[in-house]
Amino acid sequence: MFQNSWSAEDQQALDKIAKKLDIDLEANDLAGAEATFTSIEVAASKIGRAVTRQVIEDLAIKQTELLDQPQPCPDCQRLCEVRGRTRSLTTGGGTADINEAVCHCSECRRDFFPSTCSVTASPTWL
Ligand SMILES: [Zn+2]
User: Fold this and answer.
1) 121 within some domain
2) Which of 65-69, 106-110, 111-115: highest mean pLDDT?
3) What does the pLDDT look like over 70-87, one tens digit per residue?
């Protein structure tokens, strides 16, 4: 099923990612007589972790970009400017550098981390 949907363009993208990670998918220990399941699995895992890390970083940036207006302080409701900061986060794919939104309320002298998700009450139907 998955193999049928894997296009030539997909393979080219994979080859580019592998090359960027110094993995030669045509190397003898991966595609030749010296290949073992372990050597193939190590290479595939390295590529998977790199893709996972990049997807997490990209989506975190998009979430931060949604917060383009000052956000209310959770304590005093004063509107505070949103700044970005980078934080290293350990994920299943390794360490990802996440760009997260942070605000500082000078009135309360505290930082807070606004969310793009608003909490809304669900209607209750009786
Ligand atoms: Zn405040």
Assistant:
1) no
2) 106-110
3) 999 999 999 999 998 998
Rounded to the nearest angstrom, the distance between the alpha carbon of 55 and the centre of ligand 1 is 33
Report how far residue 39's alpha carbon sits from residue 44's, in angstroms, rounded to the nearest whole number.
Answer: 9
Structurally, the chain folds into a number of domains equal to 1
Determine the distance separating the centroid of ligand 1 and the alpha carbon of 67, expressed in angstroms. 18
Query: Do the bridges between strand 110-112 and strand 79-80 make them parallel or antiparallel, or are there none, so unpaired?
Result: unpaired
60 in any annotated domain: yes
- How much distance in Å is there from the Cα of 97 to the middle of ligand 1? 28
Q: State which residues form the domain around 18.
A: 8-112
Residue 123 lies in a domain: no
Is residue 122 in a domain?
Answer: no
Q: What is the mean pLDDT of residues 95-108?
A: 91
116 has pLDDT over 90: no
Total Cβ atoms within 10 A of residue 73: 20
Residues 80, 45: Cα–Cα separation, whole Å: 42
